[in-house]
Design brief:
Radius of gyration: 22 Å
Number of domains: 2
Structural class: mainly alpha
Number of strands: 0
Number of helices: 9
Shape: flat
Length: 241
């Protein structure tokens, strides 16, 4: 009886962790969204992507990430309007505008990296029937980003103990004490990742089975439909303007 109650509690906690969106859906959105700026006016698309990213992150119950998204976008768009209103800094305005437009996609990608393990990403990407080399490369790239950030933080802490701070005022010294050790550490991590992948049979010619078999469910289709409908609405607004 106790085991049954414990299993029910674990299942309830899993369900209450937020909507478990298929990683493929988030990958498709992150691939399509930036390219849409070619066809659609930046203002309409920027507003839609911001609202859409907020809705998706809210459904996933990533409240801290949602707060960070809103704060980052507000700071960047505020900086844009501040720089464009002054003649001396007007040339920097476009830089901050481009950064603000990329914020929704960056935070969706961050949620993809932080929420899913490499095994889950690999299992989801294999359902797309794309070359395995691309699947492995995309999975390693997505999971290496947080590893790189964690290694850089550890390196920065060790340098701080020696009285060395990372500063742009002394770029050559910072490069010497931070970037060079990080590059050597990256080489070591690459060997470790390769060895781990070979042990798990990542180079096997057959399609690997996975504990994390993820199918695209109805709410995944609903999110994709909302995304496509929003893009269509933005395109119509651009044409009617």
């Amino acid at each position: 009886m106790n085991c049954s109650a414990r299993a029910k509690r674990k299942a309830y906690k899993y369900l209450m962790r937020g909507l478990k969106i298929n990683p493929v859906v988030l990958i498709i959105i992150n691939v399509l969204a930036p390219s849409m700026y070619i066809l659609i006016s930046g203002m309409y698309l920027e507003i839609f992507l911001l609202v859409f990213a907020c809705i998706v992150i809210l459904l996933m119950e990533e409240y801290k990430m949602l707060f960070g998204l809103l704060i980052t976008f507000t700071v960047l768009i505020g900086t844009y309007y501040f720089t464009i209103s002054h003649e001396k800094t007007a040339s920097l305005a476009m830089f901050f505008l481009i950064l603000s437009q990329s914020v929704p996609c960056l935070f969706l990608a961050a949620s993809l990296i932080s929420r899913y393990t490499s095994a889950q990403l690999l299992s989801a990407l294999e359902t797309l029937r794309i070359p395995r080399v691309m699947v492995v490369a995309a999975t390693i790239t997505l999971k290496y980003i947080p590893t790189f950030a964690r290694e850089f933080k550890l390196l920065r802490d060790s340098m701080r103990l020696r009285g060395i701070d990372f500063t742009l005022r002394k770029p050559i010294k910072s490069f010497q004490y931070f970037v060079v050790p990080q590059l050597f550490r990256c080489a070591a991590l690459a060997d470790e990742v390769t060895a781990a992948g070979i042990v798990k049979g990542i180079d096997a010619p057959r399609r690997r089975t996975s504990y994390y078999e993820q199918k695209i469910r109805w709410f995944d289709y609903a999110i994709l439909a909302l995304f496509v409908a929003g893009l269509g609405g933005c395109y119509l607004c651009t044409k009617m303007r």
